[in-house]
Amino acid sequence: MRDLRFAFRSLRRAPAFTLLIIATIALGIGPATAIFSVLDSLLLRELPYRDPDSLAVLWRARESGDRAPVSGPDFADFQRLATGFDDMAIASWTGSFNIGNIAEPVRVEGSRVSPNFFRLLDAPPLLGRTPTGAALNGEKLVILGEDLWRRAYGARTDVINTETRLNGRPHRIVAVMPRAFAFPDKAEVWVPFELTPDTIGHRAVHQFRAIGRLKRDVPFARANDEIARIAKQLGDTYPETTRGIDAWLMTIRDSVVGTVRKPLLILFGAVVFLLLIACSNAANLMMTRAVARERELAVRAALGATNSRLARQLLAESLMLTTLGGLAGLAMAAFALRLLRTLGAAYFPRPDLISIDGRVLAFNFAIATLTGIVFGLVPLLSRGDRFAELKSGSRAKSTNAFIRESIAVAVIALSFLLLIGAGVLIRSYSRLRSVDVGIRADRLLTMRISLPDAKYPDLEVRTRIVRRVLDELRATRGVESAATVSGLPTENTMSGDIAFPNEGHFTGSRRIASFSEVSPGFFRTAGVPILEGRDFNDDDLRTLLQLDRAPVLINATMAERFWSGRSPLGEFVLVGGEAPSTIIGVVGDVKQKNPSEPTPPHVYLALGTPMPPRPVTFIVRSSLAPRDVVAAMRRIMRGIDADVPPYKVRTMNEVIGDAFAGPRFQTVLLLVLASIALLLAVVVGIYGVISYSVAQRTREIGIRMATGASHAAVLRLILGRVAKLALIGIALGGTCAIAFSRTLESLLFEVDAADPRVFSSVAVLLVLTALIASAAPARRAASVDPSISLRYD
Prior knowledge:
The chain is an alpha+beta fold.
């Protein structure tokens, strides 16, 4: 306690130093705490399922190699044939549901699940009881997520076994799942359904996520091999729909986390480097303070203080500083988390789960304590003969110049490494944003409606309503054109089989293609060129309803891949179902999912194609403000069905921007970390080292000037030393950057991780900022009065 009281009085007498070192520590600990909280929430925290290591998610392979969901019939066969699982269940790709019978109807994300879904995951509900059987006995049940329960039902505990309306049909609420329950994706409603031939769909339509629990004695690799063998067997049995489509297993954590694992680990490595930079600069500052206090420490040693006693005093000061810096870093992390959740809303699978909890607080405390021990004891490593200080009676001389400059070089090297990472990500993101998505996004607004299938089960009625909405939208003043699409560009996840006739029969192997259902006028509204043939027209509806040679359009990639050198117009293809379709046009490529990947074959079906009911997305090109278009849409829907409001209102620029959410998040965050590193390296590192060096070499500089050295020569002396330190640091950092370049390769688009232009630009930036930072102390050195400096003690 005496040491702590003395440390407090000592630091209070030097407020500038105290605030500087606290800020330095906070800039290192704050980002580390924020990124660790993200890492902990998404990668380290225990999943809310029993024995999650035994859970595996089944995926099928697209032609491009990207993962895809399974079809219902394929799942039934996997469930029947696989012997390595205790049980298997499915959940539909996340959709949306109208929740009625409450104070204010809402539209929420949700999923249809097999009756054994919750029994397989064995996740305890917050309220009620989840279905445990393999059948529903005709009951219509619904399970709510905690956030929806609190938001729409006021967190009432008496909602269990009450009735609510889901898409216009009554369902009984049987359970509420905790917020951490996160499968699949961002679902807030789960609706169990019976697995019948009518509900599981066609074998060519991939719309379900399959999950299984491995038997206790079955290793993951063996189960994966079995799934691959079954996939090949299904391909031989159903060649028209399944041949050539692989299958594999992923752990449930990898499936939930998706592609964010590696970027998060890289960003955590970056904040560790930043923490090292902060610790190094804090150590330099403590060494500067220790030199100024060398006479005090020498007196204490002469009076009998041992080295361990002095170390304890210095450690008390450093721990007090790091505790204050850790608290400031914690406040910075709390603020940064709000920004991270906003920036990564479209990137993280569950941004709402990211928070600061006890584990994050423990991490913050551990880092602060370790930092205090490390930089608190560094000054003791460079101490000289303290009794010599008393004998000479002179000001303490620096015996730690080599250590200080070595630390400065290390800081420059780490900063260079972070700046290189930020530089190549900026170039990659710039190249990615320059990719032509294939549509004209200016003045294009998107919004969605969902017609309840219970209220509008007939396809012809649903199609008529959509056509009426389109007609009224197009008649609205200021609206240039309007159309519908089942899946927006960069977001479309619908996929299915396409097959080509072989001697009049569709018997060849099938290919996986993505597809969309669009209305006439979609391509004109979206700005997609029709390269050959024609668009859909109103007369196509009759052909669709007769299920006879339904018209389709295909993209340029599909035309080039399968009809290279000749026109595909008039050719037949089999898309998903049993009836062949006629190609009536070829349109320009549109990035349907990941803009960084090659465009896959894509088929456009006409509005009214017999398909399962799904939400309809409207795109509207107009000169009106988005709120005016939405107001017009609300007026139209009130005249048709007041219970079906528009939702998910976004501009097309926002839709496209969300497709770049991952690269944008990685680039912005690494740029911020690199900027902080540069600030610490230059302001605290280079400036501090050179200022201290000038102060210690005042007598030497005075002698040089007294013997004829010019001001320019002194400037060259100081700046040359700075340039030498910077170049050594750049050389070390560049070597490390080349060694670590492969780590970043998977995050880059059309950019080399060791891009020489980035290396040279960052090197010039670092040298210039280092010279600018040292300009002030260099000018002070050049303005030294020799007559004063020769008397300097």
